Amino acid sequence: MRGVTLVLVALLGYVHAELWFGRSGVPRVLELRAQVAEQQALNEQARVRNDRLQAEVTDLQTGREIIEEKARAELGMVRPNELLVQYTPAR
Q1: How confident is the prediction along the chain (91 residues), in pLDDT tens digits per residue?
Q2: pLDDT at 87
Q3: Fewer C-beta neighbours within 10 Å, C or N terminus of the chain?
Q4: What is the DSSP string of the chain?
Q5: C-alpha–C-alpha distance, residues 26 and 32, integer Å
């Protein structure tokens, strides 16, 4: 009976050691959870950016106002008979 008890205690010790120090132990699980949380945050940022870009593409496909707005903001274009005044604040 004593031998069976020692074998069971040894097996319990082995399982417990594997739980804490093994390849799929608690520290590894915590590390993987942190990586998953970080990746989910990155995915959320990418999803928001993709939604914004999709809205811009839809605007470009359906209306001319966004094209004019981009031409004015990024290229400095003006309409005929329109005067462009650039103002630089004093330092």
Answers
A1: 888 888 888 888 888 777 777 777 888 889 999 999 999 999 999 999 999 999 888 887 887 787 777 777 787 777 788 877 778 888 7
A2: 80
A3: C
A4: -HHHHHHHHHHHHHHHHHHHHSTTSHHHHHHHHHHHHHHHHHHHHHHHHHHHHHHHHHHHHH-SHHHHHHHHHHH----TT----------
A5: 10
Q: Which residue is associated with the tokens 């945050």?
A: 41
Structure tokens at 32: 């993987």
What ranges do the domains of the chain cover? 24-74
How far apart are alpha carbons 63 and 70 in whole angstroms? 12
Q: What separation in angstroms does the CA of 78 have from each of 63, 69, 87, 89?
A: 18, 10, 16, 22
Phi, psi of 64 (to 5 degrees): -95, -15
